[in-house]
Design a protein that fits this description.
The protein contains 8 helices and 6 strands; from the N terminus they run ββααββααβααβαα. The chain is mostly helical. The longest helix is centred in the N-terminal third of the chain and has 34 residues. It comes from Toxostoma redivivum.
């Protein structure tokens, strides 16, 4: 809701636990709830902005007013919900195809067509090779400086500078090939070449019944 021109694709899982009619009813209910939530958000923002503009000393609230106006201008496009059975490979492929279809829609993503310099592809291919190499640990964590040195061993990447690599890593982070938390001080020098490791770790740590599990330990 805070990202300008966001596009959201709701995905409903556990279809295998529902009857066909139930899936249709739940899909309709979820989309109705989303529509109501967005309408409420719009009304709340308008109400807050009116309150600030109508206050006795509006100049004291300029910063708040600007943030609210910025949030008000953020458009949010909600696509039709996709219901999937996560235990069915065909449904996963159907979801993948739906995502790709939307991503390639230039009306939704005007900047989708972008020509990348060849070095972006070269670095991407080199990082994939490093991630698949036998010396790479299962967690896929690598020091940024060490990654620079590994990439520089490739003949066509010998002159690759750290600044350009950081730009490329930002791109690879956005497309999900790697994870690089450059904005977090303790992690800015670490690149995760195996993002699935983080997913596995979070699944172990973040779960709805974690508190009950911890409390059950004497």
């Amino acid at each position: 809701m805070r990202v300008p021109n966001s596009v959201v694709l709701p995905v409903g899982t556990h279809v295998d636990c529902c009857q066909e009619q139930e899936v249709a009813e739940k899909t309709h209910d979820i989309m109705a709830r989303i529509t109501a939530m967005l309408a409420e958000r719009k009304n709340n923002l308008a109400h807050f902005i009116d309150n600030l503009e109508g206050s006795e000393e509006p100049k004291f609230y300029v910063d708040q007013w600007e943030k609210l106006k910025e949030m008000e201008s953020c458009t949010l496009t909600i696509l039709n919900l996709v219901a999937v059975n996560c235990t069915d490979h065909c449904d996963i492929k159907k979801l993948e195809a739906t995502i790709l279809k939307h991503v390639k829609n230039e009306e939704l993503f005007p900047d989708v067509v972008r020509v990348l310099p060849p070095i972006y592809r070269q670095v991407e291919a080199a990082i994939v090779d490093i991630a698949r190499s036998e010396e790479m640990a299962d967690h896929g964590m690598m020091d940024l400086q060490y990654l620079v040195s590994k990439l520089s061993q490739h003949k066509h990447l010998a002159s690759l500078g750290r600044e350009l690599l950081q730009d490329i890593l930002r791109y690879l982070h956005r497309i999900g090939l790697v994870v690089w938390y450059e904005e977090i001080k303790h992690l800015e020098s670490t690149v995760f070449l195996q993002p699935t490791f983080l997913i596995t770790m979070f699944k172990l740590l973040v779960r709805h019944h974690l508190v009950q599990q911890l409390e059950s330990i004497s």
